[in-house]
Amino acid sequence: MKRSSVWKSSATAKFTAARFAAAAKSGVGAKSAAAPNALRCARLVVTALLATLALAAPWYSRVSAASPDQSAAPATPLVSVLHIDDDVEPVLATYLDEGLADAAKHSAVLVIITMDTPGGLTDSMKDIVQHILASPVPVAVYVTPIGARAASAGFYILLSADIAAMAPGTHTGAASTIMVVGGIPTQLDPVFRAKLNEDAKAFLRSFTEKRGRNSALAETAVTDAKAFTEKEALDGKLIDLVATNMDDLLRQLVGRTITRFDGTKVTLHLEHATQISFELSSRQKFLARIVEPDIFFILLIVGVLGLYTEFTHPGVIAPGVIGGICLVLALYAMHFLPVNLAGVFLILLALAFFIMEAKFTSHGVLLLGGIVSMLLGAMFLIRSPLTGFGVSFVVALAVTVPFAIIAVVLMRLVLRSRSWKSATGKEELLGEQGTVVEAVPANAEGMIRIHGELWRASSTQPLQSGISVRVVRIDGLKLHVEPVTTPT
């Protein structure tokens, strides 16, 4: 509080106290008047309270000025450390988003993302870049350890950070758009490739220019698939510094002033900083495996096979339970992965071919067609013009061949069971042989013995007693028979 304000408060306090004393004196000295009424008492109480507050105000102001705000006291700076150690995919993007939010929640002064990745899905990469650009906490991306790389999608993430750093012996770049089908790169139409490259270059320029980095050199990683060592990246103004380890990185950042994406300048106070690592949860580690293209394909095929087994052989239960769980997990992964419906239809077509192979004689043509269809479906299952990822050919072949054999065998067992004769009830008598006990006139009824039982029987031709007959039809409790040998 300013000195003039303190003086005014003191004067007000004295004036109020004087009024309180005068009022009290007048109230006590008026003996001729009756006892003070309620209104006068209330006024005296209020006046006393105001006087007390006025007298205490200068003292409180001096105490407040002398005592510093505890909330403003400097605390140990907190540095949150996140990790990118594998492909860039949706679960990893979720992990990084949660890590940045956690750092902001705990008032961290810096987020360091250590990175070693071959690249990944474009949608996930864009999500990570957007959260880095919008992070209220400064973000440093550090390519480490020695021999690590920030290729493809990792190149974009590195250049989007407030501070881009690399360890010795690391490299980055090679961010050209490729299309990989079944692990095999394929050629793109020139117009389509040019379209993808222009989109990628514009995306790079949108944040590298504001970060003050060499956007022209960065574009060569897209157009020419150029890669850079840590020294080349530093000399080309793609990164800000080279650090041998985490301690060296923090030492170089102490007191450093950086310009955020929104133009504000921040000085990093990292003296005696405490590092806290934000790890993937067990749930995220499990889901990270599910969304891998190879695992997704295996879950999908096992799920289909399990339900197929349960439908063709009701009551087995276990295949249906396992297949249902695998199929639900595959559908969950399908929500994140860029799944191509053409690949799904090719897999369903392969299943139809396997069923027809068991039912019709095709000399293996339908079986071969189903295997080819499923292999093509596996390779086209993950839409990857912007990802570079898909189901590997080895996994597709290793899953397709056993699936084809099992599907055909199961269907043949089902079809064979339909030709089996019923082993219970009256239907078991069809085709059985018996002996005529009582002569049977033509188109009339008689008695025969079969399985030790007597049955009424009829025939279109006369049957003599003692001859053997065969059951051809059952009509209620009457059997229609024919002689096993033509009577003489």
Strand content: 15-25%
Side by side, the strands of the main sheet go: 10-5-3-2-1-13
Tell me the total number of β-strands: 18
Structural class: alpha/beta
Distance between the termini: 136 Å
Please specify the SSE layout and strand pairing:
Elements: H1 3-29, H2 38-66, E1 78-84, H3 90-105, E2 110-115, H4 122-134, E3 139-143, E4 149-151, H5 153-160, E5 163-166, E6 171-173, E7 179-181, E8 184-186, H6 190-208, H7 215-223, E9 227-229, H8 230-235, E10 241-242, H9 246-253, E11 257-259, E12 265-267, E13 274-277, H10 282-290, H11 293-312, H12 318-336, H13 341-359, H14 365-380, H15 393-418, E14 433-438, E15 444-450, E16 453-459, E17 468-475, E18 478-483
Parallel strand pairs: 1-2, 1-13, 2-3, 3-5, 4-6, 5-10, 16-18
Antiparallel strand pairs: 6-9, 7-8, 11-12, 14-15, 14-17, 15-16, 17-18
Question: How would you concisely characterize the structure shown here?
Answer:
The chain is built from 15 helices and 18 strands. It is α/β, with parallel strands linked by helices.
Describe this protein's structure:
By secondary structure, this protein is an alpha/beta fold. The chain folds into 4 domains: 3-66; 78-282, 2-enoyl-CoA Hydratase, Chain A, domain 1, CATH 3.90.226.10; 291-418, no CATH class; 426-483, OB fold (Dihydrolipoamide Acetyltransferase, E2P) (Beta Barrel), CATH 2.40.50.140. 50% of the residues lie in helices and 17% in strands. It has 15 helices and 18 strands. The radius of gyration is 43 Å and the shape is elongated.
